[in-house]
Amino acid sequence: MNTTFERLRAILVKEHKLPLDRLTLDAPLESLGIDSLGTVELLWHVEDAFKIKLPSEPVDLPTLGDVVRYIDELVAGEGRAAAPADAVAPSLRAS
Amino acid sequence: MRRVAVSGIGVISPLGNSTAEVMACARAGRSGVRRLEMTFASRLAAPIAAMARIDDGHGIDVGKVRMLDRFSLFALLAANQAVQGSSGALAGIDRARVGVFVGTGMGGTHTMDDGYQTLYGEDSDRIRPFTILMGMHNAAAAWIGIEHELRGPNMTYSTACSSSTVAIGEAWMRVASGQLEVAIAGGSEAPLSPGSLKAWEALHTVATMDPEDPSSSCRPFSKNRSGMVLGEGAAMLVIEPWERAMARGAHIMGEIAGYGQSNDASHITRPSVEGQAAAMVAALQAAGIDPQEVDAINAHGTGTQANDRTETAAIRAVLGDRAGHIPISATKAMHGHLLGAAGALECVLSLLAMQHEIALPTMHLQQPDPDCDLDYVPNMARDGVAAQVMLSNSFAFGGTNAVLVLRRARRAIS
């Protein structure tokens, strides 16, 4: 089973056309050209790949490591309880 | 008012992706209408359309392409081509003095169609996050503005089949009046999605397919015409004050001399002789040109019974006896009906025809119609037509008529 980070990197390579060697855990999303809009797109693919539903609250994810932790928490949470009925994509942060 | 020059042209069309390709195709009377190969074609009564072809080497960054509906990609490619061909129209200019004016009838219809397919066809809620940004009508204009850092007015016009004629006309007014120094103006349309094709079919305005030769299914002004054939693509102009273009030694491809509009205010689809004539008169008045100076016309010429009959009568009403003595080209027989981009492509073809001193043919004109009794340049281009002034007609559902007056490029009148 691939790790969360490996699966996230696969999404970034395939969907965001990013080179693998730039995808480190401490890489800021902004430095990869992923702004607030790009984050919405990334998390949409994450929902698909990890079979999770994202909560509607805004979320601050400065680095890829933060995204990995966010996904792991959600996956663990979904294991404990069903996703809230009103779960939708996260709101766009003002940019 | 200042004279306005066309100093750049870009085209992505069923007749080719450069002015040279488009002109060679149109001059030879080659049709871009083809049988549709898509899987969905089996559900269409007339599986034909005029498709634009773009290869992967178009130079737009892949990261950007995934945010573009097909109509925005067409628009951006055509705009880039126009800017590149303008010999530096944007060099050193205050970008707040440059506007973008784009016409589109249907906007990002592929994107919206895909979204509905997910929602209803697949019973899934997984709508892609960029659906709104790709589907919105002003996406094409916005991306052109972003690409070239143009901070002036960024406008989108949606008046069905006259959209891009309106866009060019509105841009012309801004440049002629001095409000803007340069404008990128034109139109884009990508209406060949399943939902759109089926919706057009339901309206009963599309041509039946000629089983012997599908490419000849659109037959403007021919008695056996049966309707329009949908097409896709984009055409963009760079326009600027004549004196500015001259001063920087630009290659001037023609002049936008006037623009007029009218509204039928009578029926949502049925065209009106009075409405169409009023738009032609308004355009000529704006240009300060007498109807007797009109040397040629690119007709709206859709190939529907109603339009072609009505347009013939409207041209007669405006030009009187002269109507029967000038060439009138209906190029939609070759490139199909690009809806919101049609007027821009036909404006380009008119400018090129004047440059090359030819009248473009109205192809597939097989049977004369007593109600369509003008000189439509049937089936073969005519050389040696030194037109100085042309009209480019665009008439739309909704009754929104728009006409451009175009002048052949001439060096300074001094």
Main attributes of the structure:
heterodimer; A: 95 residues; mainly alpha; Non-ribosomal Peptide Synthetase Peptidyl Carrier Protein, Chain A; 3 helices; globular; disordered C terminus; B: 414 residues; alpha/beta; Peroxisomal Thiolase, Chain A, domain 1; 2 domains; ten-stranded mixed sheet; two-stranded antiparallel sheet; 13 helices; 14 strands; 18% strand
Provide structural commentary.
- The complex is a heterodimer of chains A (95) and B (414).
- Chain A has three helices and no strands.
- By secondary structure, chain A is mostly helical.
- Chain A has one domain: ACP-like (Non-ribosomal Peptide Synthetase Peptidyl Carrier Protein, Chain A, Orthogonal Bundle).
- The C terminus of chain A is likely disordered.
- With 414 residues, chain B is α/β, with parallel strands linked by helices.
- Chain B folds into two domains: 244 residues, Thiolase/Chalcone synthase (Peroxisomal Thiolase, Chain A, domain 1, 3-Layer(aba) Sandwich), CATH 3.40.47.10; 152 residues, 3-Layer(aba) Sandwich (Peroxisomal Thiolase, Chain A, domain 1).
- In chain B, the strands form three sheets. A ten-stranded mixed beta sheet of chain B has the order 5-4-6-7-1-8-14-13-9-10, sandwiched between helices. A two-stranded antiparallel ribbon of chain B has the order 2-3. Chain B has a two-stranded antiparallel ribbon with strand order 11-12.
- Chains A and B meet through helix 2 of A and loops of B.
Indicate the topology.
The complex is a heterodimer of chains A (95) and B (414).
Chain A: H1 4-15, H2 36-50, H3 64-80
Chain B: E1 4-12, H1 19-28, E2 33-35, E3 48-50, H2 62-65, H3 70-84, E4 98-103, H4 109-121, H5 131-135, H6 139-148, E5 154-157, H7 163-177, E6 182-189, H8 194-202, E7 233-241, H9 242-247, E8 254-263, H10 273-287, E9 296-298, H11 305-319, E10 328-329, H12 332-335, H13 342-356, E11 358-359, E12 382-383, E13 389-395, E14 400-407
Parallel strand pairs in B: 4-5, 4-6, 9-10, 9-13
Antiparallel strand pairs in B: 1-7, 1-8, 2-3, 6-7, 8-14, 11-12, 13-14
